[in-house]
Amino acid sequence: MLALSTPPIMAPTTRSNSLSGSCTLKRKRSTSLPLTPPLSLDDSGSDNDSTRSLARAVNVLSTAATALSHATRLYQTLPSARDGLLRAVDCITHVHAAGGRLIVCGVGKSGLVGRKTVATMKSLGLGASFLHAGEAMHGDLGDVRENDALLFITFSGRTPELLSLLPHLPKNIPLLALTAHTSIEDCPLLASRPDAILLPAPIHEPEEVSFGVCAPTTSTTVAIAIGDMLAITAADAVHRERARDVFRRNHPGGAIGAKVEEVVAVKEVEIVVESESDDDVQFRKRQREISNGTIVETGEHLCR
Hints:
Blueprint: H1 48-77, H2 79-97, E1 102-106, H3 108-123, E2 128-132, H4 133-136, E3 149-153, H5 160-165, E4 175-179, E5 197-200, H6 207-211, H7 218-239, H8 243-250, H9 254-260, E6 266-274, E7 280-290, E8 293-297, E9 302-303
Parallel strand pairs: 1-2, 1-3, 3-4, 4-5
Antiparallel strand pairs: 6-7, 7-8, 8-9
Helix pairs in contact: 1-2, 1-7, 2-7, 3-7
């Protein structure tokens, strides 16, 4: 069974090029002890396969929770992370005021994270669009306009497709990067752009240490959370108290749309009912108006 104690939050570190392993630079092996409680199996049970599956599943959730706690601590304490977030929000605010958009660019799993971030920003009334790095080199660079800003999402900070794209970007376009690096100097993608904005999204241990495979899991969880953090914070800065109304206008469909469309006006009215015995009976009913229907409640039954 998994250990129940919460692992300590370690200070963020920058990955070293001296690390060795069979994975690409994105997923390096680590000689340090894992910070996530290790997977432990109880062989005394009669169904070892089920025990192993459950322990593995809970370990994944525990690892994700630890990584998010690490990221939270990072933005609470690390000056470069806090400054990066504030600069990113200020950048998006100015881009929005100028009628521009935040162009989010990435490939692979980072590209999927980027698409989710764009969808969230759109629903919150922030101009955003996704740009695939490969397609950008074949004509889609025309989607980047004068008042836009560009956000790269890359765990390693050295994705070849993004590095190839850099020389072709206008120098006056603000550049942001969501990456595992915690300083611009250590991020190859931003080495030539000291004015760029860094949004650190490191993980507390390599995925291979956590799960035995290099598959992007913990890193994409943290990246999605940082993207959500940026979207919510920027929407609050842009819309202030109107943020809820903007979201309601942009998201009329589905269960979320049905929920926000509820009319919350609730009133009580007094009704006099005459029975066959001519005895006047007075009672109170509660009326709630929901969407286009009316629900009438009494103390004992409900009728429509």
